[in-house]
Specification:
- The protein is mainly β.
- Helix content is 7%, strand content 31%.
Length: 181
């Protein structure tokens, strides 16, 4: 069964959270139309200060709604757009995807997964103590898993709405694991 888009969000100015909308338009090579993070070069507020010409590999932020369920069990009230994501999904193992996976969102849009969102301390400003929940430690390997979604670039534009399907297309083998970007 394919996954599903549960919410779409954008904000024209720098703000940690993004309000939900009925639809967003993805623009090939740019990101979410009307969102502060859209652009060919990096739009991350801090990173722009030291690498302003770097390519924008963070055009679209996707987050799995299952994380909100997990956080609710720990007493945190988090909803779509609250952590700054543009597309909230259900039924897609975003964190388990390899680099370069294509996500077909609805009938038109396609994004390519570029890496894991690197959680920042502003998460604690949103909800005190929440930053610590954005990591999981593998007791066997000692490796960290970053749980706050993935970043992507827009390969084919289109309109994305809640209830649209999400279809995953894996890249050719060998798969490269996601890294923080």
């Amino acid at each position: 069964m394919p996954g599903q888009v549960t919410a779409v969000s954008r904000h024209a100015t720098y703000s940690f959270s993004k309000p939900n909308h009925d639809a967003v338009t993805l623009l090939a090579g740019l990101g979410v139309e009307g969102d502060v993070h859209a652009g060919r070069t990096i739009r991350h507020q801090f990173r722009m200060t030291y690498e302003p010409e770097a390519p924008n590999l963070r055009q679209v932020h996707l987050m799995h709604e299952e994380l909100f369920d997990e956080l609710a069990l720990k007493g945190y009230d988090v909803s779509a757009g609250g952590l700054g994501e543009n597309v909230t999904t259900r039924g897609v193992d975003l964190l388990g995807l390899p680099t370069g996976a294509l996500l077909h969102l609805g009938d038109e849009a396609v994004v390519e997964v570029t890496g894991l969102r690197n959680p920042c301390s502003k998460i604690n400003d949103y909800r005190e103590g929440l930053l610590g929940e954005m990591f999981a430690l593998d007791p066997v390997t000692g490796a960290f898993t970053f749980k706050c979604g993935v970043m992507a670039v827009v390969r084919r534009g289109g309109t994305v709405r809640p209830h649209d399907t999400v279809r995953v297309e894996l890249p050719a083998l060998p798969h490269r694991p996601l890294e923080r970007i």
